[in-house]
Design brief:
There is one protein chain. By secondary structure, the protein is α/β, with parallel strands linked by helices. It contains eight helices and eleven strands. Helices cover 36% and strands 19% of the residues.
Length: 236
């Protein structure tokens, strides 16, 4: 069976690294994530991965009252670097070649992000893990994922979450919430459906990149997605 997507940008939230608690490091959960990425890579999918840092520090929402927004966002960027190194280690223990590239220079532990170099890594079958967001305060890692997806020519942006798709309202609060199989960018933006932040959704819309929202904890979720089988919700 042919792959539907051979060039993918995967967005992993920091909370995924924390497992059920959503904070700290749940190593069995991280190893499960790495296993799914390894399977996709071995199928021939060229993968870029953007990681969040919410399991460690969530920018202004984790900052004490009165803390400067720029300082808080810089702390959040550094948290994503820690997660990127953690994911790199988990993948390389599975014998998957990886490179960590950061939007801020930390040359002792990662390469600075350069688009052409990232392209070469992906062409050689390496999984490229993008850390430190866009390198700028006031921008989320969702926006970084949309940006990298566009730069890398990704056919789809897969947002790996703890929910199995996009709902018309919060399924944790409303038992009658309805899950979409497919929904348009405009409806996501107009109804504020919390798929990703509005800047990221608008960026994907302008660059014609579909967003696939899925529960990465489901068995073979990523493999199912790259084959184009029904899983999660497609925003297009």
């Amino acid at each position: 069976m042919d792959l539907k997507y051979t060039r993918v940008l995967l967005k992993l939230s920091g909370e995924i690294f924390g497992g059920a608690k959503g904070s700290g490091f749940d190593y069995p959960a991280i190893n499960g994530l790495a296993s799914q990425v390894a399977v996709a890579s071995r199928l021939g999918v060229r993968l870029g991965v953007v990681v969040g840092g919410g399991n460690i520090f969530r920018g202004t929402s984790s900052a004490p009252p009165g803390m400067d927004r720029v300082a808080a966002d810089h702390m959040g960027m550094l948290a994503t670097v820690i997660n990127a190194i953690c994911m790199q280690d988990a993948l390389e223990r599975l014998e998957v070649q990886t490179r960590v590239m950061t939007a801020i220079e930390i040359r002792q532990i990662a390469e600075p992000y350069i688009k052409r170099r990232a392209d070469r890594h992906m062409e050689k079958g390496r999984v490229v893990i993008f850390a430190a967001g866009t390198g700028n305060p006031f921008f989320t890692t969702d926006t970084a994922a949309a940006l990298r997806a566009s730069e890398m020519g990704a056919q789809v942006l897969i947002k790996a979450t703890k929910v199995d798709g996009v709902y018309d309202k919060d399924p944790n609060k409303y038992p009658d919430a309805v899950r979409y199989d497919q929904v348009g960018y405009h409806e996501v933006l107009n109804r504020d459906l919390k798929v990703m932040d509005s800047t990221a959704v608008a960026f994907c819309k302008d660059n014609h990149i579909p967003i696939l929202v899925l529960d990465i904890r489901q068995q073979d979720a990523l493999k199912t997605a790259v084959y184009g089988r029904s899983v999660g919700t497609v925003v297009c």
